[in-house]
Design a protein that fits this description.
Largest sheet: none
Main location: membrane
Structural class: mainly alpha
Keywords: Cell membrane, Membrane, Transmembrane, Transmembrane helix, Transport
Strand content: under 5%
Family: Belongs to the autoinducer-2 exporter (AI-2E) (TC 2.A.86) family.
Number of strands: 0
Membrane topology: Multi-pass membrane protein
Organism: Streptomonospora nanhaiensis
Shape: globular
Radius of gyration: 31 Å
Helix content: over 70%
Order of helices and strands: HHHHHHHHHHH
């Protein structure tokens, strides 16, 4: 080959097969695995924050129809409607705490005051006397209380309870503040999200996105209506049977009714147990009443309220709530049904029409 031609002479044997650089492949693969592992660890570390953001965004989208209704009917600016909704939420939380804190304090004080008499009456019963003779229950309890590390154990338990209370208050305040910001800036968030879609498809995506937002808002509104109706029914029944804590138990029933699938049952058991402390017969009557009402709510009230909220089959609702509850607990159960409703809209308006055109 002439010199200066710019070409490099090939080996005598020709090109031949080139072997890959296994060291480079292994290094790149290990680097990819390490990067994926670091990303997973980072997501696990900020999991709580992501859950807070997801719940706050869900609440903001769900409360958006209320804000729009206040803007249209009361001629409020958006900031005024957002402030009104936030004040209503704070007022409800204050009423709930005001209604539930004094009875709990009173019951705890009464239990502590009556504990010696209760123990003495138990010791006089044949069953407890036989239990004491066989297993020395009181001696074991006395030994536990007089143990040197009893104070440390009690203090550690109180610290644990205090930490749980602090974490709950922190999570609640964080979600509330994030919800406030999301409610105020939701139109801007949606507009920015739609701008990531090419202009040719933007109108269709906007239509589907607005429909998803409307469905989520309708779902939350429906849940609130069902819960409020259950709380009102519970209040009138508990007031009729003479319960001293009718308002408190009615609020508990209403709040727990927001939990999909098991919420009404939890509220019914709590109310029945509270009534049974004063009268076991009335507690049984209360349990029977709530079981009957639960059937009416499940098959009459809730289907009528939710008919136009989430157009999802009941089987899909139950499956979604179970899967969501298994993956993310209570938060997953709350978010599962609106998520399935959103997927249903995408399937009906995007996936199925494209499959039909093929």
């Amino acid at each position: 080959m002439p010199p200066g031609s710019g070409l490099t002479a090939l080996p005598a044997g020709g090109d031949g097969p080139r072997h890959p650089n296994y060291f480079l492949l292994g290094f790149v693969g290990a680097l990819g695995v390490l990067t994926a592992w670091l990303l997973v660890e980072a997501l696990i570390g900020v999991r709580a924050v992501l859950v807070y953001i997801l719940v706050a965004l869900f609440l903001a989208v769900g409360l958006n129809p209320v804000i729009e209704g206040l803007r249209d009917r009361a001629r409020m600016p958006r900031w005024g409607a957002v402030l009104t909704v936030c004040l209503a939420m704070v007022l409800f939380a204050a009423v709930f705490v005001w209604a539930i804190a004094p009875p709990l304090t009173e019951q705890a004080a009464s239990f502590a005051a009556n504990l010696p008499d209760t123990v003495d009456s138990l010791r006089r019963t044949p069953f407890f006397a036989d239990l004491e003779r066989r297993y020395d229950v009181l001696d074991r309890i006395e030994g536990l209380v007089t143990a040197p590390d009893f104070g440390q154990q009690v203090f550690g338990g109180l610290v644990g309870v205090g930490q749980v209370v602090f974490n709950t208050l922190f999570a609640t305040s964080t979600v509330f503040i994030l919800t406030l910001f999301f409610m105020a800036s939701l139109p801007g968030i949606l507009d920015v999200s739609y701008r990531f879609v090419p202009r040719s498809n933007r109108d269709g995506v906007r239509r589907i996105g607005d429909e998803i937002v409307r469905r989520i808002g309708a779902f939350i509104a429906g849940q609130l209506v069902v819960a409020a109706f259950g709380g009102v029914v519970a209040f009138f029944f508990l007031w009729a049977v003479g319960s001293a804590y009718a308002l408190t138990l009615a609020l508990v029933v209403a709040v727990t009714a927001l939990i999909p699938l098991v919420g009404t049952t939890i509220g019914a058991l709590a109310a029945s147990a509270a009534v049974a402390l004063g009268s076991p017969l009335l507690g049984l009557v209360t349990l029977v009443f709530f079981l009957v009402y639960q059937q009416i709510e499940s098959y009459v009230i809730s289907p009528r309220v939710m008919r136009h909220a989430v157009d999802v089959a009941p089987t899909a609702n139950i499956t979604a709530a179970l899967v969501g509850g298994t993956l993310m607990g209570l938060v997953g159960a709350l978010l599962a049904i609106p998520t399935v409703a959103a997927l249903t809209i995408i399937l009906k308006q995007v996936v199925f029409p494209r499959l039909e055109r093929r």
